């Protein structure tokens, strides 16, 4: 999106418009902030929810939501909330749109940018809520944070997978406060409350839990579970999944033993020596953009330190879409797909 110059008056007007549209208040000192704003209706609203440790009260449903990243747009679309969206931001790579039940929503809702979200994009869209996550659009380096958006009168909802847990005390604090699929179910239910579609949210959670349970019932049993390493990318050091990113639950529920399950973070960089030491039976490639999955596979097979790793020796490399591996309503189907592959892997 082309950057345009704005006067201070225009920025103020847009911020006020966004604030008026959202009708959200951040509760103070642990109170529920349940006082109704002027003009708030009766019935469902006001409603107070907790998201990544912050309580917020909504006097009405947001009407102009902007999302960042594919999995986050999927969550809104799966809940049937496209009429509450001003647009979505995501790179060119979106996975197989035709394979999802909400494919029509992608044609209906404006695709605002193929780069990361900015405050300018949110203002241009007259957003009243930005749904993103830490390292999924929110970050101090980019200047787009819930705090910076609040100054513009724009509310925020943080992807639960990305909630910071503060374990390392640094600026780039570790992420993850619950198992990944629980994070998905939590977001569906919380957004169900915010947008007054709780029955729809609960139906999705019930459907997804059954889908995962059915896959688990067919998955390899204890003692037969192949060990699995998730390779996102990187040659000097690989980016992978810790226990709080989507692949952990996808691998585990599919019947695999996630070799990086001890890492108390979501997406993390590790050393190749730890991969060699843990000797995975299977490597799952996270496929998106460039380098391609084939390029990643070629690198893994040609990288000398990995030559004696079981997955490389036995050519057990399985490709999955990024859209299936980040927190998304596509996760349950990903469990089913990976479970089918792992059933054919013999360890030992």
Largest sheet: 6 strands, parallel
Structural class: alpha/beta
Q: Tally the helices.
A: 13
> What is the overall shape?
globular
Low-confidence stretches are 1-21, 27-40
Helix content: 25-40%
Euclidean distance between termini CA atoms: 53 Å
Total number of strands: 15
* Rg computed from alpha carbons, rounded to a whole number of angstroms: 21 Å
Mean pLDDT: 89
SS strand fraction:
15-25%
Order of helical and strand elements: HEEEEHEHEHEEHEHHEEHEEHEHHEHH
Note the main attributes of this structure:
globular; six-stranded parallel β-sheet; 18% strand; alpha/beta; 348 residues; 13 helices; four-stranded parallel β-sheet; disordered N terminus
Task: Give the gist of this structure.
This protein is an alpha/beta fold and 348 residues long.
Descriptive overview:
There is one protein chain. By secondary structure, the protein is an alpha/beta fold. It has 13 helices and 15 strands. It has helices at 8-22, 70-78, 103-108, 119-124, 146-151, 180-194, 198-218, 246-253, 272-278, 293-302, 310-313, 322-325, 331-342; strands at 24-26, 47-51, 54-58, 65-68, 85-89, 111-113, 129-134, 137-138, 155-158, 227-231, 239-241, 257-258, 267-269, 282-287, 317-321. α6 (180-194) runs antiparallel to α7 (198-218). The longest helix has 21 residues, at 198-218. The relative contact order is 0.12. The model is unreliable at 1-21 and 27-40 (pLDDT under 50).
């Amino acid at each position: 999106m082309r950057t345009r110059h704005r006067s201070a008056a225009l920025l103020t007007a847009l911020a006020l418009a966004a604030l008026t549209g959202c009708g959200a208040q951040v509760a103070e000192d642990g109170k529920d902030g349940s006082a109704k704003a002027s003009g708030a209706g009766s019935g469902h609203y006001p409603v107070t929810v907790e998201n990544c440790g912050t309580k917020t009260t909504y006097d009405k449903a947001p009407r102009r939501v902007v999302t960042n990243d594919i999995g986050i747009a999927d969550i809104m679309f799966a809940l049937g909330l496209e009429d509450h969206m001003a647009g979505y931001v995501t790179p060119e790579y979106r996975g197989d749109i035709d394979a999802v039940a909400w494919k029509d929503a992608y044609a209906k809702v404006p695709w605002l940018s193929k780069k990361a979200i900015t405050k300018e994009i949110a203002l241009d869209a007259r957003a009243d809520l930005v749904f993103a996550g830490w390292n999924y659009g929110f970050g101090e380096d980019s200047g787009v944070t819930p705090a910076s958006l609040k100054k513009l009168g724009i509310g925020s909802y943080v992807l639960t997978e990305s909630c910071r847990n503060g374990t390392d005390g640094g600026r780039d604090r570790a992420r993850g406060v619950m198992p990944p699929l629980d994070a998905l179910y939590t977001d569906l239910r919380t957004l169900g409350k915010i947008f007054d579609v709780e029955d729809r949210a609960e139906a999705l959670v019930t459907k997804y839990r059954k889908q995962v349970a059915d896959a688990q019932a067919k998955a390899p049993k204890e003692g037969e579970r192949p060990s699995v390493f998730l390779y996102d990318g990187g040659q000097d050091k690989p980016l992978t999944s810790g226990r709080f990113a989507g692949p952990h639950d996808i691998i585990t529920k599919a019947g695999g033993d996630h070799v990086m399950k001890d890492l108390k973070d979501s997406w993390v960089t590790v050393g190749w020596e730890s991969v060699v030491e843990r000797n995975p039976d299977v490597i799952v490639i996270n496929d998106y953009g460039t380098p391609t999955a084939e390029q990643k596979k070629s690198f893994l097979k040609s990288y000398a330190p990995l030559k004696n790793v079981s997955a490389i020796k036995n050519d057990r490399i399985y490709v999955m879409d990024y859209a299936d591996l980040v927190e998304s309503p596509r996760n349950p189907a990903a469990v089913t797909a990976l479970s089918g592959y792992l059933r054919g892997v013999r360890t030992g």
